[in-house]
Amino acid sequence: MKTAPRAQDVADLAQVSQSAVSRTFTPGASVSESTRNKVLAAAQRLGYRPNALARSLITRQSRIVALVMSYLENQFYPLVIEKLSQKLQKQGYHVLMFIADIDEGADGVLADILQYQVEGIVMASTMLSPTLAKSCSDVGVPVVQFNRISDLGGLTRYATSSVTSDNAAGGRLAAELLVARGYKRIAFLAGLEDSSTSLERERGFKEALSELGTSVSYRDTGHYSFDGAKDAARRLFGHADRPDAVFVANDHMAIAVMDVLRQEFCLRVPEEVGVIGFDDVPQAAWGAYQLTTVYQRVEPMVDATVELLLEQMRGEVRAREIVVPCMLVERKTVRPAA
Amino acid sequence: MKTAPRAQDVADLAQVSQSAVSRTFTPGASVSESTRNKVLAAAQRLGYRPNALARSLITRQSRIVALVMSYLENQFYPLVIEKLSQKLQKQGYHVLMFIADIDEGADGVLADILQYQVEGIVMASTMLSPTLAKSCSDVGVPVVQFNRISDLGGLTRYATSSVTSDNAAGGRLAAELLVARGYKRIAFLAGLEDSSTSLERERGFKEALSELGTSVSYRDTGHYSFDGAKDAARRLFGHADRPDAVFVANDHMAIAVMDVLRQEFCLRVPEEVGVIGFDDVPQAAWGAYQLTTVYQRVEPMVDATVELLLEQMRGEVRAREIVVPCMLVERKTVRPAA
DNA sequence: CTGAAAGCGCTAACAT
DNA sequence: ATGTTAGCGCTTTCAG
């Protein structure tokens, strides 16, 4: 465990100055072909790699982006990790992971994050408290809220960027489909009461229903968890006057609902109960579920996130909200048109 | 976007030396109560946070651990990210994510990693090439291979630590169960041909079958992907003399197999075909699958990983292999005892 | 194009 | 217990 070679070691071996070494590893610096080759050869022999941390200290660019998450049970988020890491890697950035306790929120963890001089923060499945928004804004670290926005109320002074699906529009699509297919007693199963994602989906859903002359007859919350959704399903469907369709705030919970419907209540989907989810996670397409759902595509959302991050790092824009369209994916949990 | 406050700024405001500030933020340093308070007050006012990168430069401790992955489709791995991040956070470390392209392997990405002065590397679902093992060993960065070990052949000079389940024992359990329940024409569906995990599971499975006086009648590979497994299932079951049971190298593929069995071949599980998976991912317990499987617990595996990492960072041990026991979880995809 | 020198923000001797 | 000093490994003026 000897110490790693430094630029000076390479310089000594290559018989050049230490700055020459630095320049060789700095894209676009002016070095002659011959010195560059001497340096590279020496570096190769010693197994030299520039110390990114030391570089950051002076360039003030850590090339690190923090990703804060708390809810990996839902397969949507692992996909986000994967795509975001890949995209950022391609831009020369790297992702530092932070798992926020669901209870304590992101605040605790964010104190840590800032010490690492991250150049940007992506908050997925976690909300940014106004306090934190201010902290980040003060330090000048761009924040992008992914798939969840904070209700800052009037406190929009520290506006942060966000990327979301058009959740309300998605909710409308769900409503229109259920009505068109003749479902009458319609339920909504929420995620978390303070989740903008869930709230927007619900808002669009209800608005469309009301325009179509009907409304939500039943409502419950599944806390975005599988077991929470099962419990909610038991409450919703465990009585005679049960709903004949349910729009669930995400696929993860929708699948839980289907399990309860079929196994505990022996109800047939979609004949006796229609189910619509949201996200289009890979599991929604699995043979046993074939869930009709509203997709939100990870790829364009991640692209938008990276774009937002980069433009803010360059100091171009203060904050911007990007809304990505979503679309209905019809599978087999809503009965076909008569 | 003004520049962040430095220790010197705090010192100036608090009317103390810059070292006093440093000491205040160094646990266990000797500072008087009064200076500490002055410093904390000043730091608070300025919103000062120590620069972890600058600190790393001198302490030679980045408190960063790299996590290399490539295969997040399988829900087993997101769980690993979650647990590992949490555990390391608790120890004051943080996880820098690296997604390795499946094709190019981890080599490309590792050049990057080392620049970040990570204190350890966890390779999950990716193999370490002997070249890389050497690089890491040279720099003295501990590496833990998680759930996959390299077949270095004779090149065990750069032995790396690993954490795996007792895959062979798990394979044996699967074999014993299938034989005990009277299945006769038994198939094995592999993950990747060069994956130690899959190979070990297969080895134990075959050994036990042979001890029980039978053997694997059919074999195919699903490349650890959902679609790959479906294709393999079509090949395995698409003829008259089909298997009556299959042990699949992991749950993710086992679920794909079940979809094909039920929907494309209208075969009933477990009556006509028995299915056993491996991992016990959350989805294995979902109502529509209820997969009988061999569990490998993420939690103890992650604990072992962190332990291995920490002890090697302290320079205590060179390399150690930890094997975590696994156990059968019987659900409903293997028929009950007669 | 190249080397010398200054310093990024911090910690860790070393004095006092 | 506190301040002074010397770097950690690197980039970036500034001369030449």
Automatic annotation (TrEMBL), chains A, B:
Domain HTH lacI-type residues, every copy = 5-59
Matching entries from Gene3D superfamilies are given as:
3.40.50.2300, lambda repressor-like DNA-binding domains
**Keyword match DNA-binding:** yes
InterPro entries reported in the protein's UniProt record: HTH_LacI (IPR000843), LacI/GalR-like_sensor (IPR046335), Lambda_DNA-bd_dom_sf (IPR010982), Peripla_BP_I (IPR028082)
One GO MF term attached to the UniProt entry: DNA-binding transcription factor activity
Keyword field contains Zinc-finger:
no
- Source organism superkingdom: Bacteria
Q: What Pfam families does the annotation carry?
A: LacI, Peripla_BP_3
Which of UniProt's keywords are assigned here? DNA-binding, Repressor, Transcription, Transcription regulation
Name the PANTHER family on file.
LACI-RELATED TRANSCRIPTIONAL REPRESSOR, RIBOSE OPERON REPRESSOR
Q: What is this protein called?
A: LacI family transcriptional regulator
